[in-house]
């Protein structure tokens, strides 16, 4: 546990020094506050921007941050130094995962100010589940990638699918049929209703399959690549 806390403290210091990484965590919460308070369009659905940016935040920030952190430390040999300092691979990955998930949840807390009462807890719970899936996918990309360039090309593709398909699905039925196989679209539907009534049996199966595939992929990649 001590080594996990060391990793978390290290990443906090690194994030404060790296504005690009910090912006990934801050941009969507800030945009949500601005758009919700500055724009009022007739017949616009309630909390439209909060729900829209929540899904984009979920599909982008934890995934890209996790992948970028791991791939950067592999490329700069920082990871090798940590491994030689008696930090176990599971301790490193746990530390990264907890750190990214927690800081994303801090952003979600800011975004949840648009909700009231029990809706806040429901919103945070749903976002927490989505963040966890994205963290695992980001770790897969980071472990698989040889360097930052490879990681960037991979996570750019993945986060655009996870973040933008649910948004485009609002305007196109054909895209909606494709988007529904991803957990971000199913979570968007839950947030639309602010209850699990928005999650159908099919949707529940899709989310479970997404979670299962992400975990299986993580172990397969880790077994093959490790933290080399």
Could you describe the 3D structure shown?
By secondary structure, the protein is an all-alpha fold. The protein has one domain. It has helices spanning 2-17, 19-38, 48-75, 78-84, 89-111, 118-144, 148-168, 173-179, 183-193, 201-225. Helix 6 runs parallel beside helix 10, helix 7 packs across helix 8 and helix 7 crosses helix 9 (183-193). The longest helix is centred in the N-terminal third of the chain and has 28 residues, at 48-75. The two termini are 22 Å apart. The mean pLDDT is 86.
In short:
With about 230 residues, this protein is mostly helical.
How would you summarize the topology of this molecule?
Layout: H1 2-17, H2 19-38, H3 48-75, H4 78-84, H5 89-111, H6 118-144, H7 148-168, H8 173-179, H9 183-193, H10 201-225
Helix pairs in contact: 1-5, 2-3, 2-5, 3-5, 3-6, 3-7, 3-9, 5-6, 6-7, 6-9, 6-10, 7-8, 7-9
Number of E-state strands: 0
| Topology as a string of helices (H) and strands (E) | HHHHHHHHHH
Rounded mean pLDDT is: 86
Global Rg: 18 Å
N-C termini distance: 22 Å
Largest sheet: none
Uncertain runs are none
**Overall morphology:** globular
- Residue fraction in strands: under 5%
Q: How many alpha or pi helices?
A: 10
Q: Helix amount, in percent? A: over 70%
Q: What is the count of distinct domains? A: 1
- Assembly state: single chain
Could you say which structural class the secondary elements and strand pairing correspond to? mainly alpha
């Amino acid at each position: 546990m001590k080594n996990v806390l060391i990793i978390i403290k290290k990443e906090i210091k690194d994030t404060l020094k790296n504005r690009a990484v910090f912006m990934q965590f801050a941009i969507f919460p800030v945009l949500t506050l601005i758009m919700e308070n500055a724009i009022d369009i007739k017949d616009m659905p309630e909390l439209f921007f909060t729900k829209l940016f929540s899904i984009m935040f979920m599909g982008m920030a934890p995934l890209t941050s996790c992948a970028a952190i791991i791939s950067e430390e592999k490329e700069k040999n920082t990871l090798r130094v940590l491994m030689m300092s008696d930090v176990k691979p599971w301790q490193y990955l746990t530390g990264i995962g907890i750190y990214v998930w927690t800081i994303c949840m801090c952003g979600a807390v800011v975004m949840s100010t648009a909700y009231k009462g029990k809706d806040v807890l429901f919103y945070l719970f749903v976002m927490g589940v989505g963040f966890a899936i994205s963290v695992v996918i980001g770790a897969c990309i980071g472990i698989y990638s040889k360097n930052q360039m490879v990681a960037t090309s991979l996570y750019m593709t993945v986060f655009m699918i996870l973040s933008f398909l649910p948004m485009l699905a609002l305007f196109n039925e054909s895209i909606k049929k494709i988007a529904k196989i991803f957990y971000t679209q199913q979570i968007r539907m839950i947030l639309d209703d602010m209850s699990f009534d928005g999650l159908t049996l099919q949707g529940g199966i899709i989310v479970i399959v997404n979670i299962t595939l992400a975990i299986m992929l993580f172990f397969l990649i880790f077994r093959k690549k490790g933290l080399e």
